[in-house]
Each structure stands twice: as C-alpha cells, then as structure tokens.
Amino acid sequence: MSLQNRYEFVLYFDVINGNPNGDPDAGNLPRIDPETGRGLVSDVCLKRKVRNYVELVKEDSDAHHIYVTEGAVLNKKHQEAYDALGIKPEKGAARKDVTEWLCGHFYDVRTFGAVMSTEINGGTVRGPVQFCFAESVDPIVPQEITITRMAVTNEKDLAKERTMGRKSIVPYALYRAEGFASAPQAQRTGFSEDDLALLWSALINMFDHDRSAARGRMAAQKLYVFRHDSALGNAPAHKLFSLVTAERVHPSEPPRSFADYRVSAAPAPTGVTLLELL
C-alpha cells in the first residue's frame, strides 16, 4: 500500500575521530561551511548509506534492487525493464510501463527518484523521499594527522624511508539531518509503508554497516519523525523542524561525546504526531 501520510524527520548522528564526508574540492578534508565553520554532510552521502544498507538486508528481494551502484551501467538496467516487458526501446519519451517496472524493482528509484532518460529511455522519476545537507550543531575544528606506511609498493623502493601521509579527522561533532516523505509522490512511484519502515531502519542502523578507517566512529543518536494525519500535511515543515533542538550541556567546554548535548522536542501541533524512533 502506497504512503497515505506526509512525513518529516530529523536525524542526529555523530562522529568521533573520523571524516564523515570528505570534500573533493578541498583535498578530501571534512566538508565545512566556510562562513560558519559548521561541518557538512551531503544528501548524496546519506542516500549512499541508505542504499548500501538496503542492498545488504534485502539482497534476495526482487523489489529491493539498487539502481545506483558502484560501476553500474545504467542502460543495462533500463534494458532489463524492456526485456521483462517483451518490448524494444524506441526513440522519444519512455513508456509508462517501463518506468513503473523500474520503480517496482529498484528501491532507490521509487524512494529517491532518478533521471533515467538516457539512450535506452527509462523515464524520469521524482522521488517521495528527500534529504537536506546535514550540518553540525557546532563549528568543527578538523585536524590533519600524519601517518606512515612501513611497506613499499616496488622492490626497488626497499631502501627508502617510510612513506609519509596525511589523514583528516574531526575529533567530535554532532550532525543534524532533515528530510521529507511526500505521500502524493509516493503514490506515483509505489513507495509503500513497508518501504518507509525500511527507510527508518536504514537511518538507525546504516552507520553500523559503513565502517572504514577514514570515517572513525559514527553512530545514529536520535531519530524524530513527524507524521501528519493527511497526505498533504497539517503543518509547515520548517515549523516542525524548529520544535527539535540540541543544546550543549557545558557551553564552555568543547564537546567530545553525545552526552555533552541535550536533545529535546516540543509537542507537535494538532494534526501531527511526533514519533521518537531512536
């Protein structure tokens, strides 16, 4: 059953001695807002973690394949839809049944949408679920740590000294991400209540399956969900987001753990239910 209610959500996650999202434009340093000093994590980065989690837990489900995967040839995936429907690709707009097949088989297409109007046209889908950039609650102070490598690549380099390198980390930061789930858009893509439950599970658990030496220790800490009584919504999203706040317990001391913050939510207005899922 497609989604019948509008949702907004707020996710708090933190990082300890890691780089939550490197910036290719800045030598892979942690992303940062140069005006405020607050750290950033892109919406694309968060969606990637959701995709990886879904691919892991639903690897045997035909309805939960992932469209955007590493090294994927997207035209081949579009061709799968045409082959399954027993038709051949034609020039011009994509057939509706082809787009519907892609939505039905790829979780990330019916969730986040996709531009699939390539040579083998799969159409364009606007996804019901969208993320904003995550931003740290306080300014961050990235550090560059010098590291060494004892091994060498080639035998001719055996006599050389150890190779020196650099590693960028954030000692600690609490990030806040906001997102939306549209019921009208969900009805167009087939995004269901079960798909939504899987999304909540991904947001809570995705960092536990995304470990790497670069990212340090990352964890989801709080997940607040606003469920509207109607499909179109009962309150403006920005006003609901303002109900959830995070404050430093000891403002004069640098934060080094989630315990250094107090996260709270004010009561939701009439027509909206506030759920604390984590």
Outline the fold blueprint.
Blueprint lengths: L6 E12 L3 E2 L5 E2 L7 E4 L1 H15 L16 H12 L10 H10 L1 H6 E5 L3 E6 L2 E3 L2 E6 L3 E7 L13 E19 L1 H7 L3 H13 L11 E12 L8 H5 L2 E5 L12 E5 L6 E5 L2
Antiparallel strand pairs: 1-10, 1-11, 2-3, 4-8, 5-6, 7-10, 8-10, 9-10, 11-14, 12-13
Helix pairs in contact: 1-6, 2-3
Explain this structure.
The chain has 278 residues and is α+β, with helices and mostly antiparallel strands. 24% of the residues lie in helices and 33% in strands. It has 7 helices and 14 strands. Strands 1, 4, 7, 8, 9, 10, 11 and 14 form an 8-stranded antiparallel sheet that branches. It has a two-stranded antiparallel sheet with strand order 2-3. Strands 5-6 form a two-stranded antiparallel ribbon. The longest helix has 15 residues, at 43-57. It is flat and about 60 Å long. The two termini are 25 Å apart.
